[in-house]
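Q: Could you predict the 3D structure of L,D-transpeptidase/peptidoglycan binding protein?
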Amino acid sequence: MNNAEMNLVGEIPTRRGKSVKGNRNWKFVAASSASIIVLLIAGISYYQATRFNSQTTINDINVGGMTADQALKKLQTTVLQNRVFVGQQQILDENDTKMGFADQDLPEVKKILKSQWTFFPSTKAKGYHLIPEKADQFRTETMKKLVEEKLLSMNKSLKAPQDAAAKLTQGSIIITKSKDGEQYDVSSLLKEYDKQHYKSDIHLSPLYIQSIKENSAIVKNEQKKLQELLGLTVEYKVQDQVFSLKASEVITNASVTKDMKITIDPNDIKNKVSEINDTKSTLNKDFSFKTHSGSVISVKGKGYGWALDVDKETAQIQAAFEKGENSISASNVIGHGWKGEGYGYDTTANNGIGGTYAEVSLAEQRIWIYKEGKLVITTNVVTGKHSTGHDTSTGVWYVLYKRSPSILTGRELGGKPSYQVQVNYWAPFTNDGQGFHDASWRKNWASNAYLNDGSHGCVNTQPDDMKIVYENLSTYEPVVIY
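A: Sure. Here are the predicted structure tokens for L,D-transpeptidase/peptidoglycan binding protein:
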């Protein structure tokens, strides 16, 4: 027997104090013990492979020591109380429901059993989340919506947080202070809810909407945006003149939206546009007009003239600053046109009258038609009857339209139509029916005929001259009557 064998077997003492060799018996004992150990290990391994560890939970339900079948049965019979808490406050208590597990969920339970397996029993706590194959929509949709609605309703009575922000106030950039609020962060709480779909009681830790702080990157970017705004200049063109509008001069109040876009208080811009409009517009103003004789007179603008639509132009300039544009032209002009349109904006020569116009002298009973600065024709006319108050209206008008031939309808002031007559040429300049036309029926063309034998307000023109007058009258061009 070698030393290794002696150490394993040893000697067996006898009753008389003698010893005998017992190697065969000890070999048998050792072999039996090994078999027992193998069987014991096999038993433990089998148990571990078919049972959950003691501290294993599925959807917060303890399944320790259970087989997969037993665990599924427990999940199938477990009742959910459907209560929701935020911190210590219960905000919802719905009717009890079951989790909705069925036999087809057994393979998933077995996967969890396999994944939590350890060779020796473990008391380490492990929790697993399992959604039934045919999940009940109550928890995932209906009840979640109820939680959302409840939180939003609660927020209405809770103090909202106040974000710090950079603002332009009275021309200076300031940083407003942030203040914490009490409103819940609904979006984050719903995400926490999603993680607890199948817990009987759902406990959500209070999460609140956080205010933006003064030293945040957001506020610093807002401040940078406003500084860039104050450095902008918009070149604003009205007719042939350009006005340099500096943001630092026409913007005193502005803020930055959450998507980092500038919002401007337009009041100061509007004041500037009104100032420009007062300087440049001709609507309802007196025109300085040089007559055929060379004398300069003042004639009130009536139908002819234009003005800036101050509100629309203000909005256009505001948008230019907000978008960072550096030049724009006026594009919103109003006046006394039939649709509120203004005329003469594109004309700057001859004090806004331009070189193409009709001149009518009531005193001289004569007209002069100019085309691009050149006299085309001058002729005697008869204007509105003075004795009956049908005088042709003085002022600066414009040719509304031209029609050849045309049927004219005459009427007494405020009365019914008293006559209809056809003319070869018709070019009205007032909305109430005054205009140029030929008058073949007229016999009296004397220079004083208008006093007692004048028209109903139109400018009667001799038939031989009216064709040339008509051909050289231009639609929307001025008609100066004085």
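Q: Anything worth pointing out?
A: The first helix runs from residue 3 to 9.
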